[in-house]
Amino acid sequence: MRIDEVIVKNLPSKPGIYIFKNKNSETLYVGKAKNLQKRISSYFSKSRDSRLNIEFLMREAWDIDFTSTNSEEEALMLESKTIKIRQPKYNILLKDDKTYASLRIELNKEFPRISSSRKCDDLNSIYLGPFKSSDGLKKTKKLFQKIFGIRDCSESKFKLHRKRACVYKNIDMCLGPCDDANLKDAYSQNISSIKTIFKGKIGKLKKELEEKMNRMAKHEQFEEASFYRDELSFLSNNYYFNSTPREELANTDVIGFYILDKKIQIVILFFRGGYIIDKANLYIEAKSKNIDLDIYQLVSQFYSKKTSIPEKIILAQDFPCILELKKDLKDFTFSKNKINVSIKKSSNHLIKLANDNAEGYIVQNIKEEEEVKLSLNKIKLALNLKKLPNKIECFDISNTQGTNPVASMVTFVNGVPDKSQYKKFKINTKGPNDYAMMLEAVDRRLKRINDKGWEPPDLILLDGGKGHLNKIAKLDLNNIDIASIAKPRKNEKNDKIYTINQSKPADFSGNIKALNILINARNEAHRFALTFHRDRRKKAMLQSNLKENPI
Asked: Is residue 206 one of the residues assigned to a domain?
């Protein structure tokens, strides 16, 4: 098991979701927990889940991610959404399962309808849920129809019955606004009552049910009275509310931060439709003496790149540079809605939630940084490099029998890809000569060593073998270390790393994490080159077809 127990011990004792990942950062498993620390710790105990898929999961798990939430309900929704998006292979039972549904009222209609929805992202609607079972949702929907007479028909059916009501009016499941325009005031009043209930004020609905039950019993309509009695019981025992008020968090970001050893962790929780749907993690080392300024600049930069800014952003009262950030947010938004930056005490529980997430992540990130430095040092020792390979540039070639040749250059900084520094080259070398193509690409890159945006790497890595390495070694490398990485043959287990000064492949036995940094860089360079080549080949084919068949 590669996951450090220190990370597990420092996880928050809160509800939330956790994500197991493999060594390539691919999602293996997504789960939810009442208590993240206890649940994840259970995977490391001798009495852990004995299911076969869990056994295989723990053999493959390399890293863990998490998001804490306010409640189990929020964790449930976030888990369902995450599984749907990432499709983890060990969520055997949940991967193909439906998401949990909520009740929805569409407010932008003359006579709003009630329906079920598996998404809570429409700002013109209000939602109630999620519901643990479809049976609970159906019963609750029926209850609202019975009490308030709210239609559930589609817009097309509603228009079809504009002159004559359907059977639902006859069985007292709908007021019948389709054939009676005078019902608008009464209908709107009922919608207002439902909006109050959807905000979590269940007492109002219970009171109405009790009044109707007593009224039916008084008139000896015992069958109807028993219906309301049963609905009251159902409501009290099975009703499933989200713990977070809808109105407050319809379209809201909550920002928290934590500082440790001059490291800054910012967590932005995205609430949409009243639910936490995702988060952003911003982590940097303080760059100036004024940490407050670093925090402000980081958040401001984050929102400057967003195409959509929420209507409301909640910050702590001590958040740095609040006035400057407010001004920036107003400048960034193209929405007609005014950006409301809230620092009210009533939102302290949300701030604490974001801060708790930030505290949990900063411990994890610092630990990961230490592991990366250790791995980079092992690469340096194994390859006998001049300095620590903090910046690695990896090159690969892609062509089809010499046609439409391209080269890629991907950049890894501190063991992770930095896509802002990726480069791609159209190769001029003619014919299927992989060595000459690689030589051209690296030579063109080295000639720009002093240009802005082309700062030199610590290590140049080639996707190839000794032949590629010997060819590139003839260039003026400006004192930059070079190495090549070759895929293993059928009878070999690991990739082989070659350097100029070593006749045999470097020994990475016992240093799998260090080797994986180089493998990941090679794989990313291959992906980037192949994508570019396919795009160029498609364009060439299109141009050829146009020449042969002009419009």
From this structure: yes
Last residue of a domain, one of 238, 263, 278: 238
Contact status, residue 30 vs residue 86, Cβ threshold 8 Å:
yes
In sequence order, the 6+-apart residues with CB closer than 8 A to the CB of 272 are 120, 121, 250, 251
Residues 81 and 140 both lie in one domain = no
Residue 270, helix vs strand vs coil = strand
Residue 504 corresponds to which tokens in the numbers above? Answer: 């045999």
Q: Which residues contact 458 (CB under 8 A, 6 or more apart)?
A: 385, 387, 388, 389, 390, 391, 392, 480, 481
Phi, psi (deg, nearest 5) at residue 460: -100, 125
SS3 482: strand
Bridge-partner residues for 342, per DSSP? 314
Three-class DSSP labels, 482-530: EEEEECCCCCCCCCEEEECCCCCCCCCCCCHHHHHHHHHHHHHHHHHHH
- Condensed to tens digits (0 to 9), the pLDDT of residues 241-258 reads 444 444 567 678 899 999
pLDDT digits (tens, 9 = 90+) for 325-384: 877 777 665 444 455 677 666 678 888 889 999 998 898 888 888 999 999 999 999 999
Residue 8's nearest CA partner among 68, 64, 57, 72 is: 64
Phi-psi region of 293 (alpha: psi -120 to 50; beta: other; left: phi over 0): alpha
Distance CA 437, CA 13 (A): 55
Note whether residue 379 is domain-resident.
no
Give me the domain span that covers residue 281: 251-362
> CA-CA distance, 474 to 471, in Å (whole number)?
6
Give the distance, in angstroms, between the CA of residue 389 and the centroid of all CA atoms in the same chain. 30
The answer on 388 and 535 residing in a single domain is yes
Count of structural domains within the chain? 4
DSSP letter for each residue of 74-99:
HHHHHHHHHHHHH--TT-TTTTTSPP
Instruction: Report the CATH number at residue 538.
Output: 3.30.420.340
Q: What burial class does residue 390 get, using C-beta atoms within 10 Å of its C-beta: 0-12 exposed, 13-18 middle, 19+ buried? A: middle
In 481-518, which positions are buried (b, 16+ CB within 10 angstroms) versus exposed (e)?
A: bbbbbbeeeeeeeebbbbbbeeeebbebeebebbbbbb
HSE-CB for 44 with a 13 A CA cutoff:
17
pTM for this one? 0.57
- The residue assigned the tokens 């084919």 is 541
